[in-house]
Amino acid sequence: MNDLSAAAGADAGALLAALPDPVAWLGPDGAWTVNGAAAARLDLLDAGQDWQALFSDDSAARLRRAVQDAQAGQTTRVTVKIVDTAAPGLVTVAPSGGGVLLHLHVARDPLEVALELMDGLHLGLTVQSPDSRILMVNGAAPDILGLSAGQLTGRDSLDPRWQAIHPDGRPFPGDTHPSRVALRTGQVVRDVPMGIFHPPSETWRWLQVTAIPRLVAGTNEAKQVTTVFADVTDRYVLQREMQRSEQRFRSLVEATSQIVWDAHPDGHFPPPQPGWEAFTGQTPGEYGGAGWLDAVHPDDRPSTLRDWRRAVQTEQHYLTEHRLRRADGTYVPMQARAVAVRDENGAIREWVGIHTDMSAVRDAQQALIDLNADLERRVQERTLALADLTRFSTLLLTAAGEGIFGLNPDGMTTFANPAAARMLGYSVERMIGASQHDLVHHHHADGRPYELRECPIHQTLQDGQTRRVEQDVMWHAQGHAVPVAYVVTPTHDENGQPSGAVVMVQDITERERAQEQLRELIENLERSNQDLEQFAYVASHDLQEPLRTIGSYTELLARRYQGQLDPRADQYLHYMQDAVMRMRSLIQDLLGFARVGRHDTLLERVPLDDLLRAAAQNVRGTLDDGGGTLDWRTPHAVLGQPSLLIQLITNLISNGLKFRAQDRPAHVQVTSHLEGEFVRVTVQDNGIGIAPEYHARVFDIFQRLHRREQYAGNGMGLAICRKIVEFHGGRIWLESAPAQGSTFHLTLPVAPSQ
C-alpha cells in the first residue's frame, strides 16, 4: 500500500493527505493508497493494510459492489457500519484518475450529543476501564469533583487521594464505590449517596451516584463502566437543617414549666404542696386527701383516678395525662408522672411526682410537624427533579424503546434515538438538524395544517412548562399519520430560562385499534340485546293467539263431553286445560319480562311508603287466606317508574308469602336505609329459605327450585325483579339459608329532595 500523495499529483496528493476524513484510492493496478487519517484508523485496529477491515462484513460487501460501479464510471454513496464506532458512516465511491477514490465521513457519535446534554443538566459522567481507571470525563465532572480533567484521567477508585464518606460520616472504602461494585457484579448500581471533599472550595460536597456497566457481548463480564453523578449538597443541607430544628424544639420541651409534689405510700396527698398550691390556687384543706382530684377536669377524673390507684396497688410508676385547672380557671393539658421512693428494706417510703405543662410541648410538636412537612416537601421536590434527570440520562445511554427527541430553543432536532427514527421512517442523520415541527408534526390527523403557535412542543419551548399529550399524530416519511402520545419536558440554562426540550413519544396505533374493537363489540352487544328483547316480546305476544284457540276448543270439549267419555278421557281433558293455563301464565310472564325497560318513560320521585301500600293491596288476598302478616319502615323516596317498582315490591313480598314454613305463619318485613346516592331496600321473610349454592341461580329466567305440585309458578318472578332493578341502575342480591328465611337486598337511586 502506497502513500496517497505519491499516487496523485503533488497538489492533489497534499490536499487529500491533509483531509481529516479517511480517504483511499484504488489504482488501475489494484493497489490501495490511503491518506494519514485512514492509515491512523487502520493502525488503531491493527488491521495492517486491509482497508476493508474498517467495516462490518455486509458493509464491506456493499463497498466492493460500489467500487465495481465506480470502475464502470458511476459515483455511489454507501451508508456503512464502522467497527470502531457506534455511529454510522457515509462512504462516497467515485472514479478518479483511472482508479477509484473512496471518501469516508463518520457521523457524529450519539455519545457526544448525550455528553452535551448531561453537561447542560450539570450531571457529571466518567467512563472507567475494568481496573476502574478513569478513561474519559464530561465537562461537568471536573466542576463537581473539584479536579481538572487531567487530574481525573488515569485515577482509579482505590486511589488514596480520594476523600469519600457515607452520610453518617463513616469512610467510604474505594472497593465499595458504585463503579467498582458495577464492574464486579455486572449490575447497575443506582442512587448511592456519597460525600466527597472538594479541594478548590475546601468543603464537602454530597453526590448521588449511579454506575452502569457495559458488558462483553453474551457475558456478564463488564468491559467498561459509565458513572453518572449529581451534586445534591442542597438537599443534604436541608436535612441537616431539619435535624437542628428538632434539637431546638427538644430543648424547648425540656424548658417547659413543671409542678413537683409528693404523696404518702397509700396514695394520700398531704400538705404542704407549694407547687400545687401556686398553680391550682387550691388551699391545703381543699387538695388534702383526695381533694386534689377536684382540680382535674371532670371528664378526665375517672381515668386519672384509675391510673393512680393502679400505680399504688402495683407499686409501679404512675403516668397519665389530664387537664388541670389553673388558678385563673383555665384548664391546661398536663402530663403527670410519679415514682416510688423506697427505704433500705425495699418498702415504699413516699411517692415523688411531677406535673409537666404540655401546652408548650404540643405547640412545639405541631411546629416541628409543620417544619418537617415543609422540609420533607422541599426534599421531595429536589429528589423528584433529580430522579427525572437521572431517568432521562439513563434512557439516553441505554437506548430506550420509546422515541426520544432533543430540541434546541429554535425547535431544531439535536438528538433522536433509533426508536424515534424507526417509528417515523427517517434516518437519525435526516432528523438531526431538521425542524422537528416541519418534518414530523406539520398537520393534524384530519389534514389541517398544524400551526406552530398551537403546537404543545413549541409552547413548551416558549414557556418552559412540561406538557403531556395523550392523543396526537406525527407524520411518517412515507406520508401517513402515526398516532402518538408524548410528553414534552423542558431543559433550562444556568439562569433558569428554557434552553430546549426533550420529547418522549409512544406509538399508540395498537391502543387505538383495541379501543375501536372494544367500541364495535359494545355496539354489537347492545344491538344483540335489543334484538333479543324484541324477539321475546314478539314471540310471547304472537304465541297467545294459537293458545287462545287451543284453550277455547279444550273448554268446549270439556263442557260438551264431560262425563260422556270414559274417566281416562276426562283426565286427559283436565291435563290439557291445566297445560293451557300454565302456558298462558308462562307467556304472560315472558311478555312482562320483555316489556321491562322497553319504553323511555321519565323517572319520577316515588315515596317507598306509597309503593308498599299499593303492594300490600295486591297481596291482600294471600295475606287473608294464609294468615300472614306484612309490615314496613320505609321513610325514603326513590327515583323510578311507579308501575315497575310496584311490580318489583309485590313480587318480592309474594315470594316471601308463598314459600312459607309449615310450622309458622308467614311474616314479611320491609325496611329502607340511605347509602350515599342510593336507597337500600331490604325484604325479609321467615319462610323455608334457600341454600347458598342457589343464590345466584334464582335470578335467572325460568329457574325453579321446587316441583310445580309443591309451589306454583313459572320461575320468572325473580328474573323480572332483577331486570327492573338493573333498569333503574341498581343491583339485587340474596342472603338466605335453609329453614332460616330469606332476605332480599336491592338498591334504587335516591330521589332528590323537593
Automatic annotation (TrEMBL):
Molecular function as annotated in GO: phosphorelay sensor kinase activity
Known EC number: 2.7.13.3
PAC domain: residues covered: 318-370, 467-520
Keywords: Coiled coil, Kinase, Phosphoprotein, Transferase
InterPro entries: HATPase_C_sf, HATPase_dom, His_kinase_dom, HisK_dim/P_dom, HisK_dim/P_sf, PAC, PAS, PAS-assoc_C
Designated name of the protein: histidine kinase
Known catalytic reactions: ATP + protein L-histidine = ADP + protein N-phospho-L-histidine
Domain Histidine kinase: 538-752
